[in-house]
C-alpha cells in the first residue's frame, strides 16, 4: 500500500500553487505600501510560549496543539498561530529598542489538531501583521484597513468587517462577574467546554456555537467600558469611517484567544459552508509583558489563506495560474540539438522564460509542446542555420518568421519580448 499524506494536509500541485503565489505576492506588495517588514520565525517553539501567550483556557492550547517532547525532554509545540512567535522574536531580539513603531508581517504554515472540513486543515497557512509600540487607535484602524484591502485587491467581494471592544483587564474583571451571574442559572445545561469556561474564562461562552441559545439577552461588554476603552473604541470607528472601510459593531464578538484588549475584529464572507469568518485580529496591550519583555502595546491580524482561496473559487474569481513562455527552442539535427542548452541558458540569463524538449520528440510534437506552454516565440535551429551562425524565430500569434544572428540571439529576443 502506498504512503498517503496525513489527514488534514494537502499537496499544492503545479497549477494550484500558482494561485498561492499570486495571493502571497499581493500580501507582500500590500505590506510594502503599508510599510510593514517581513519576519520569519520557527515553525516550532517551546510549549510554554503558547501557554503564556495564547492562553491556557483557549481551545487552541487545550485541544488543538501538536505538542511533543524532543530528544532533550523539552516540551515543543508546532506553532498554532503567528502572533506569539512574533512577540517572542520581538522581545528576544530587542526590537523594542527601535526608535519607530515596529511593523512586521509574516506568511507561513500553522498547525492545529482539529477535525478537517472545508477551509479548515491541520496544516493551515496564514498571512499576518503585527505592529508594536503604539496605543494610537489609528494604528488599530490601519491594521483593519490592511486586511480589508488585501481581500479587496485579491478580488473577494462583499467582505464585511465586524468590530468590538473587549476592554482592558479592569473592565473585563467587572464584566466577568456579570457574565457569570447571567449564566449561573443555566450552568448545568451548558456544554462540557462551557461549564469549564464558566470559572476560568466565562466570556468565551458567548463564542460557543452550541450554547448560543443560552446567551440570548446576555449583557454586552460595551455596557461596562470605562472612559479609556470607550474613547479608544470610538476613535477606531471614526478612523474606519474616514477611510471608507465598511464595518458593523458586534457586541458579542470575543475572538478565541486570551490576549486581546480593546479592539477585536473579524472579516466575514460567505461561500464555504457554515464557516464565514475568514480572518481577524485585535489589540493586545500586555502580551509583550506576559511573554517576558518590557511591556509594549501591540495590534495585529491573521488571515487564513486556504479560506481566502475557497472564497475566491466560490465567487468565481479567476486567478492567473500560468505565465506563457517567452521562447521555446527546437533543434533539428544532432549538432543543433547540442547547441540548445547553451542558447537556453543565455536566454534565461537575459531574464526570459525559455524551454526546450528533453524527450527526443519529433518537431510536430515539440510544436504542440510550445502551444501547451503558450510560448510567444518558437526558435528553430537547423544544421544549415547553425553553419551560417543564424537561427529562425517564429512569432506564434501571427506566424511571422525572421532570422537572427546566433551571437546576438539572446539579447535580440529580450528586445522582441519587451
Task: Give the helix/strand layout.
Elements (H helix, E strand, L loop, with lengths): L16 H17 L3 E2 L5 E3 H9 L3 H6 L2 E3 L5 E4 L4 H10 L9 E10 L11 E10 L4 H18 L5 E6 L3 H15 L8 H9 L26 H16 L4 E3 L11 E12 L2 E9 L3 H4 L7 E7 H10 L12 E6 L1 H16 L4 E3 L6 H10 L4 E6 H6 L1 E6 L5 E5 L3 H9 L1
Parallel strand pairs: 1-5, 7-8, 12-13, 12-14
Antiparallel strand pairs: 2-4, 3-4, 5-6, 6-11, 7-9, 9-10, 10-11, 14-15, 15-16
Helix pairs in contact: 1-5, 2-4, 5-8, 11-14
Structural write-up:
- With 418 residues, the chain is of the alpha+beta class.
- The chain is built from 14 helices and 16 strands.
- The chain has helices at residues 17-33, 47-55, 59-64, 83-92, 137-154, 169-183, 192-200, 227-242, 287-290, 305-314, 334-349, 363-372, 383-388, 409-417; strands spanning 37-38, 44-46, 67-69, 75-78, 102-111, 123-132, 160-165, 247-249, 261-272, 275-283, 298-304, 327-332, 354-356, 377-382, 390-395, 401-405.
- Helix 11 (334-349) links the parallel strand 12 (327-332) and strand 13.
- The protein is elongated.
- The model has no long low-confidence stretch (mean pLDDT 90).
Amino acid at each position: 500500500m502506498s504512503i498517503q499524506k496525513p489527514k488534514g494536509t494537502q499537496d499544492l500541485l503545479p497549477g494550484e500553487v500558482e494561485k498561492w503565489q499570486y495571493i502571497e505576492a499581493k500580501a507582500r506588495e500590500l505590506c510594502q505600501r503599508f510599510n510593514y517588514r517581513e519576519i520569519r520565525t520557527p515553525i516550532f517553539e517551546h510549549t510554554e510560549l503558547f501557554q503564556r501567550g495564547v492562553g491556557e483556557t483557549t481551545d487552541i492550547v487545550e485541544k488543538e496543539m501538536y505538542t511533543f517532547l524532543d530528544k532533550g525532554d523539552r516540551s515543543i509545540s508546532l506553532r498554532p498561530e503567528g502572533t506569539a512567535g512574533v512577540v517572542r522574536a520581538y522581545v528576544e531580539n530587542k526590537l523594542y529598542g527601535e526608535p519607530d513603531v515596529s511593523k512586521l508581517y509574516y506568511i507561513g504554515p500553522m498547525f492545529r489538531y482539529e477535525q478537517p472540513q472545508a477551509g479548515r486543515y491541520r496544516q493551515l497557512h496564514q498571512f499576518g501583521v503585527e505592529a508594536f509600540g503604539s496605543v494610537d487607535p489609528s494604528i488599530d484602524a490601519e491594521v483593519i484597513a490592511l486586511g480589508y484591502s488585501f481581500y479587496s485587491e485579491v478580488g473577494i467581494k462583499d467582505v464585511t468587517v465586524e468590530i468590538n471592544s473587549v476592554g482592558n483587564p479592569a473592565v473585563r474583571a467587572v464584566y466577568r462577574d456579570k457574565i457569570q451571574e447571567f449564566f449561573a442559572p443555566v450552568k448545568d445545561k451548558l456544554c462540557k467546554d462551557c461549564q469549564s469556561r464558566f470559572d476560568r474564562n466565562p466570556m468565551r461562552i458567548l463564542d460557543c456555537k452550541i450554547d448560543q441559545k443560552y446567551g440570548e439577552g446576555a449583557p454586552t461588554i460595551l455596557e461596562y467600558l470605562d472612559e479609556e476603552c470607550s474613547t479608544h473604541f470610538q476613535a477606531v470607528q471614526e478612523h474606519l469611517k474616514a477611510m471608507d472601510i465598511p464595518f458593523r459593531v458586534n457586541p458579542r464578538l470575543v475572538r478565541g484567544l486570551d490576549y486581546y484588549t480593546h479592539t477585536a475584529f473579524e472579516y466575514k464572507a460567505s461561500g464555504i459552508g457554515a464557516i464565514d469568518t475568514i480572518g481577524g485580529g485585535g489589540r493586545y496591550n500586555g502580551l509583550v509583558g506576559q511573554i517576558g519583555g518590557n511591556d509594549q502595546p501591540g495590534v495585529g491580524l491573521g488571515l487564513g489563506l486556504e479560506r481566502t482561496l475557497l472564497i475566491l473559487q466560490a465567487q468565481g474569481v479567476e486567478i492567473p495560474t500560468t505565465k506563457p513562455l517567452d521562447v521555446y527552442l527546437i533543434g533539428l539535427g544532432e549538432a543543433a540539438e547540442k547547441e540548445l542548452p547553451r542558447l537556453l541558458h543565455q536566454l534565461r540569463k537575459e531574464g526570459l522564460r525559455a524551454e526546450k524538449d528533453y524527450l527526443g520528440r519529433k518537431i510536430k510534437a515539440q510544436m504542440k509542446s510550445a502551444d501547451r506552454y503558450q510560448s510567444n516565440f518558437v526558435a528553430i535551429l537547423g544544421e544549415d542555420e547553425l553553419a551560417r551562425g543564424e537561427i529562425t524565430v517564429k512569432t506564434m500569434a501571427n506566424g511571422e518568421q525572421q532570422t537572427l544572428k546566433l551571437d546576438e540571439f539572446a539579447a535580440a529576443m529580450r528586445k522582441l519580448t519587451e
